[in-house]
């Protein structure tokens, strides 16, 4: 079987895990701090808050920004469901904006028509490792005084015009799920340069404990802290962080090899006229968390048949992701009909994710390519 992806581990993870277990400290602690420091060094950002998933990261990001009932948040219509669910968690209202075919990210030219007096933020998703058009998004956000949360779940290492994603908007949210470039099993992190947002996010992830305010009993053996917000337990454990530290050391190596695999696919598929390839502008530093092609006809039946045939030949594939305007919850709550966001719907029907992982062998890629090329002959 050629899997859709495969995390890469070696002795480093075993050593780091042993160090953590031997220390006897397994919840958030020294390993988590080291992990956050590695992230900050890599991203040249002031603050990092590790959490249990990117979903948790998006949740505390919106809480920290004060998004609540009555506020509207703009979300691309083609993304993982969480990019919109986080708005629901805080009682906000989602405004769906269609994507563009080229990058499969939010179409900046559709943003202004979705902005109302209630709009508070834009969630810019860097889908599959491809950066969203941040210049245009930031320009519009500034014009209407909106926050920008970057959903970088798929995009660690991705750059936009030389800048690391997650450091352009107000808060960046990353995932360490096993389908991502590096993994902690489950896990996530928030990045920001804003001190106030940092302390808010710390508070929300850790039961509402205020990490700034202390009272006169601070330091006494019985001191339990000040809890002046409702918080959650969304912490990353030191066991997960230990794996993350070992993974982080290999980040560039893993990203480089992923890119090599993507370039091989691109080269070999460029003559395939019935598919749209993920070809994006040069200054968009794509990291290919997923290698997603689009069946040009948009015929879901044709796409599904190819997936079935590949499965029968031992090759795992997946659709790209979801047109979230079509999910039952969103259709019902927002009264959405088919055709609401046609490009997102096209992407859901037409997208086909091919297996990609570091150190994927040329003969494995050739097996995949043979079936894709045969399907479009
Ligand atoms: C665009 C996007 N946002 C958010 C998430 C959620 O990440 P996690 O699984 O770490 O909660 C994902 C997961 O794949 C994603 O693709």
What are the salient characteristics of this protein?
377 residues, alpha/beta, Aspartate Aminotransferase, domain 2, Aspartate Aminotransferase, domain 1, 2 domains, seven-stranded mixed sheet, 12 helices, 15 strands, binds pyridoxal-5'-phosphate
Structural account:
With 377 residues, the chain is of the alpha/beta class. The protein folds into two domains: 11-98 and 106-248, 3-Layer(aba) Sandwich (Aspartate Aminotransferase, domain 2), CATH 3.40.640; 251-375, Aspartate Aminotransferase, domain 1 (Alpha-Beta Complex). It is built from twelve helices and 15 strands. Strands 1-10-9-6-5-2-4 form a seven-stranded mixed β-sheet, with helices on both faces. It has a three-stranded antiparallel β-sheet with strand order 8-7-12, with no helix packed on it. Helix 5 links the parallel strand 5 (119-125) and strand 6 (147-152). Pyridoxal-5'-phosphate binds next to helix 3 and helix 4.
Number of domains: 2
Helix content: 25-40%
Number of helices: 12
Strand and helix order: HHEHEEHEEHEEEEEHHHEEEHEHHEH
CATH topology of the largest domain: Aspartate Aminotransferase, domain 2
Strand order of the biggest β-sheet = 1-10-9-6-5-2-4
Number of strands: 15
**What integer is the average pLDDT?**
97
Report the end-to-end length measured between terminal Cα atoms.
24 Å
> How much of the sequence is in beta strands?
15-25%
The distinct bound ligands, ions and cofactors come out as: pyridoxal-5'-phosphate
Q: Helices and strands: which structural class? A: alpha/beta
* General form: globular
Identify the CATH architecture of the largest domain. Answer: 3-Layer(aba) Sandwich
What would CATH call the homologous superfamily of the largest domain? Type I PLP-dependent aspartate aminotransferase-like (Major domain)
Question: Largest sheet, described in full?
Answer: 7 strands, mixed
Highest-level CATH class of the largest domain: Alpha Beta
Computed over alpha carbons, the radius of gyration is 21 Å
Flag low-confidence runs: none
